Amino acid sequence: MAESQSSQSSAEAKFIYPPETFYSCIGCGSCCRQRWVVEVDSECYDALPDDFKTHIVSAHDAKARAKDESLVEERFIKRHSDAEGCPLLDPDDGLCLIHKRIGYESKPFVCREFPFRFIETPSGVIVDVSFVCNEVLNQRGAEISTHRDEIARLYAKSKRKIEVGSKIILKSKTSISYEAYTLIEERLLEIFSDRNQPFEDRLVAGNIFLYSIVKNVYDAEKILLKKDAILKKLNKFQPRHFMRLYAIAKKSQKMISKHKQQLFVVTFITFASSASEKRGKLSVLLRTWANNVKQSLNIGSIRVPVLPGSVPLRALVDVEFNEQDQMIGELAERYIKHCIFRKTFVAQYGLFRGYNILLLLYGVIKWLSRVFALRAGRKTVSRDDFAKAVQLVERQYVRHSDYLSFLRLNSRAMGFVDKLFDDLGFAPIIVKS
Ligand code: SF4
Q1: Where are the domains of the chain?
Q2: pTM across the whole model
């Protein structure tokens, strides 16, 4: 994903805030206990007293060791262990020692920037927030837009801006203008907002809607479809067509067999393992997949990436997930809408592929929330299990590690994934399994 080279100055930037999103840092220290690399910029390093500097290491060796190309700074904080989190977190009160001793402005820039990230688009700078933050996840605090001064300051210094260009891939060889894309996005969000329909039916309906848009465009040449052409197509979608989308989505539940679901779980785990191990070779991927299939047929346990220990697949399948639970449904809807708002999937990876990747993430969240429920000895997923799964997926696969890690596969593997997506039966398996 491209990092922006030519960012607008914060004075002239037009910020676009996520609607109805709240956040206020209450210094809970939860983000400091995550398993991620805290990079230290030179301004921060130079201001640190010597006893703090003993916790900082050079990124050069570590970069080569971890092959982590996403590091942008020369140094980072060395963690004692996964459980303890950042060594500069005071265990007594959960506050940052740098903040306490030398002030907020002296903290590493990444710590001050969290939970914000900036996405530059032709219509302005999207202010993205991380759902790893408990306050964002639980909608607490003040509206994001009330932090505008701080946001402008952070934006001016951020080294992790992401750029969404003026062309959005509709399907191979065909792009649409960013303006045309926003019209499609509006319609997509309209489908999501119909609370008379179960959330998962809305997700599948969105897939059918985009499929229909993508399939019905002329793609013999490299063409850029402008706003008018897209408007013409969108105008064909009347309310009765939306009702038809939901009806098809409802029926799709019947298309799912237990075997298909199991196959999906195994495939998801394979892709997720491959992403977390940062290996993208097709042969490795296929070997892992075959191994996982074998284990699942033997009613054995499978290793869920990023979580310690293994999980019995059969027991996992039996954990009930009720998306009609209002608390789960509310968070799921808010999270998926935010993912669309931040533009890094649906706009960045192409309209149809990006949307399907989003569905895949929803499937991953569901399965991980089952793992959390099982570990807590519950037979039904609670809102808390679901929230923990959202945080894990957000941290590991979506926003913080490396946006591309979920897709760090070779192009042949990605071609295979695209073929699966091209089958309309795949979306319900992803969403409803
Ligand atoms: S440096 Fe301070 S704010 Fe940053 S992760 Fe460590 S304790 Fe948290």
Answers
A1: 15-163, 169-253, 256-432
A2: 0.86
CA pseudo-torsion sign 25, 28, 30, 32:
positive
Q: Does ligand 1 have an atom closer than 6 angstroms to the CB of 151?
A: no
The DSSP annotation for 144-207 comes to GGGGHHHHHHHHHH-S--EE--SEEEEETTEEEEHHHHHHHHHHHHHHHT-TTS-HHHHHHHHH
Query: Which uninterrupted H or E stretch holds 224?
Result: strand 223-225
Q: Does residue 214 have its Cβ closer than 6 Å to ligand 1?
A: no
Is the C-beta atom of 75 inside 6 A of ligand 1?
A: no
pLDDT tens-place string over residues 382-419: 999 999 999 988 887 776 655 444 555 455 556 666 77
Rounded CA gap, 389 and 87, in Å?
25
For the chain, first and last CA: distance in Å? Answer: 30
CB contact at 8 A, 189 and 205: no
| d(CA 79, ligand 1 centre) in Å | 11
A 10 A CB-CB count for 241 gives 11
